[in-house]
Design brief:
Keywords: Cell wall biogenesis/degradation, Hydrolase
Catalytic activity: Hydrolyzes the link between N-acetylmuramoyl residues and L-amino acid residues in certain cell-wall glycopeptides
Pfam families: Amidase_2 (PF01510)
Number of strands: 8
Distance between the termini: 79 Å
GO molecular function: N-acetylmuramoyl-L-alanine amidase activity
EC number: 3.5.1.28
Oligomer: single chain
Helix content: 40-55%
Length: 223
């Protein structure tokens, strides 16, 4: 009698153990399914033939006008969810505003920045900030940065006008506020500072001290 009870107890333990494993396995599978569903919910638009909805002509900076770059000059993404943004990279066009727009609309150019700032202070956005622009010449830097072109030539200090500095500073301050980017020279850099680049922009005549003061002032105003 006692032996049977002991045996029944062991069988009961085994049944409880099996039940616990089954229930635990079902719970774990359910949890995995939830995680998988959440992950798929975030990445569904990456399925071939499916595109994430975009509002036509939407801009990320209120003062900008929208002109779309060629699809060949950027990569669709969902930043900062898939790639964190922690940097702004300053470029100079080495040409006119209009020539830069045309270049970024050319699929053969294979490069473009998110924004172009003109000497008169106008701002044109050509790629959404959530997407990866081919502007830095380095994949990691492209994925983690927003690129801003400035109309002019690196060897002509007169090209960097008051209107340009002020408009660009407001734009950079807004970007820094949106992604909580520190306003310092480790996170706001020139194209020349990207590792491995053969570019020299924004060049020796770009006034970094002045620019950073303007960005800090504008950033304080956005808080």
């Amino acid at each position: 009698m006692g032996a049977r009870k002991a045996s029944a107890g062991k069988d009961g333990d085994r049944r409880i153990g099996r039940r616990a494993l089954i229930v635990g396995g079902v719970a774990a599978a359910a949890g995995t399914a939830v995680l998988a569903r959440d992950e798929l919910g975030r990445l569904w638009w990456r399925v071939p033939g499916v595109e994430k909805p975009r509002e036509q002509g939407a801009v990320d900076f209120a003062d900008a006008r929208w002109v779309a770059a060629s699809d060949a000059n950027w990569r669709r993404a969902d930043r900062p969810d898939d790639y964190g943004i922690d940097m702004v990279i300053v470029h100079v066009t080495q040409g006119s505003f209009d020539s830069a727009v045309r270049a970024f609309q050319d699929p053969g150019h294979k490069a473009a920045t998110h924004y172009i700032v003109g000497q008169d202070g106008r701002v044109t956005q050509m790629i959404r900030e959530l997407d990866v622009a081919y502007h830095a010449g380095d994949r990691d830097y492209n994925e983690r940065s927003v690129g801003i072109e400035h109309e002019g030539f690196v060897d002509r200090p007169q090209d960097f006008t008051d209107e340009m500095y002020e408009a660009s500073a407001r734009l950079t301050a807004r970007i820094c506020a949106r992604y909580d980017i520190p306003v310092d020279r480790e996170h706001i850099i020139g194209h020349v500072e990207v590792p491995g680049t053969d570019h020299t922009d924004p060049g020796p005549h770009w006034d970094w001290d002045r620019y950073m003061r303007l960005v800090r002032r504008a950033r304080t105003g956005t808080v």
